[in-house]
Predict the structure of DUF7587 domain-containing protein.
Amino acid sequence: MLLLSGVSVWWSNIVSTYVQGKGWPREISKPHNPSCTVVSQYNPAGTRTNPKPYGTKARILGQQQSHMANRTIFTRVYSKSSAAQLIAAKGPKGTLSHGELLAEFQKHAYKSNQEATALVSVSDRIIDTVKRALDKHYTNGESPEDIWIAFIETPTKTPPGVHAANGLAKESGFPRPNLFCHEYIFEWAIPEEYVLHTVSLQILMDRGLDWEKYSTQNRPLSTKDLRHQIANELQHTSSVCSSWDVGIVLASFARLFGARAPLSWIAYQLFYDCVWTEMDPEQQVVRLKFANENIEIVDFEFFCDLDDGVDTALNDWWLADTSFFLRHKAFEDWRVAMLCDTNNFCESWHDVDVGDTVGKILWDEALKATIEAEAVMMGL
C-alpha cells in the first residue's frame, strides 16, 4: 500500500485500492501500461469499458469545465455545537444594510469571537469542508453522528443575500483578504430550497472515509499540506497508470457522499481544489501543477480520459448498473407504500390522536427517519 508520511488514511486507501488492487476481486489491465492494474467491485465484467469517442478534444474539455461553471455549489459543515447550523445564531431580523453587513462580517471573521452574528458561511471547495468536519471529530472530540456536511446550490454565484467573503474582507481592511477567497456569506440563513443534500460524518466514515491519522507528529495537516498530499497521490496515479485511473479515484471519493449528492461536482472539484490548471486553447494543451511546483504539460486527451474514468465509475459501474436500478426502484416503491399506508392509517383510525401539533411532528419525523435510514443503506 502506497502510504506517504503524513497522508490521510482514507485517501491512501482509495488510491492503493484502485492502483494496486488490494482486496478487490477483479483486475483491469491497462493496455498502454501492462504493469498497472486497476480493480473495482463495481465492474462485474472485470474489464475496462470502451473509452467514449473523443470527438473534438477541446470541445469535450470545454463541456467539462462548462458543467462545473454552470452549477454554483457550496458546501458547509455544521454540528450540534455550531453557533449557526443553516440558520444564523442571531436569528432573522430583516435585510442588512451594507454597513450592518460589514459590521457583522468583522465579528464573524475572527474565530475567537463569541458574539452571535447574522451570517452563515459556506465554501466553494470540498476539501475545506471535509477537513473541517474531521477536525470537529478528531480535534474537538465531537461525535461524527452530530457532524453534517451540506451541499448548497444557488441559481447564480451571488444571489441576493449572498456575498463573496474576500470582497467584504477587502472593504473591512483585513491585511490578507485572499484568505477568504473560497468563502461566501449568507445573510441570516441558507434557504431550505437551496440545500441539495446533507450527509453525516458518521455515514461517510461507515462508507470508508477514515482520516484518523491525517497528521504529522500528532498535529493535523493544514489544508495546504493536505491538498499537496492529495495532489501528490493523483500525480503518482497518473504517472504509474493514467488519467483514466485518476478519474476512477476521484469518483470513488465522490461516491462516499451518496447518490443524492452532486457527484460529478465533488469528483472534479476535489481535483481542481488540489491541482492547479491552466488551459491553452491555441496550443491545445493544459498546464498542471501538482504537489511539486513543477509545471506538467498535458494534451486534452488527459482530461478526456479523466472524464471517462469519472463517468465509468459513477455511471457504468454504479448508477446505471442494473442491480442499483432495481434496488432503487424497490426502495421508491416501498417509500411510496409507506407514505400511503401512513396516510390511510391516519384517515381511517380517528380514535388514534395524531392530529395534535406535537404528535404530528413526532410522527412525521419518525417516518422520515425510517425512510432516510433505508435510503442511506442503499447508498443514496
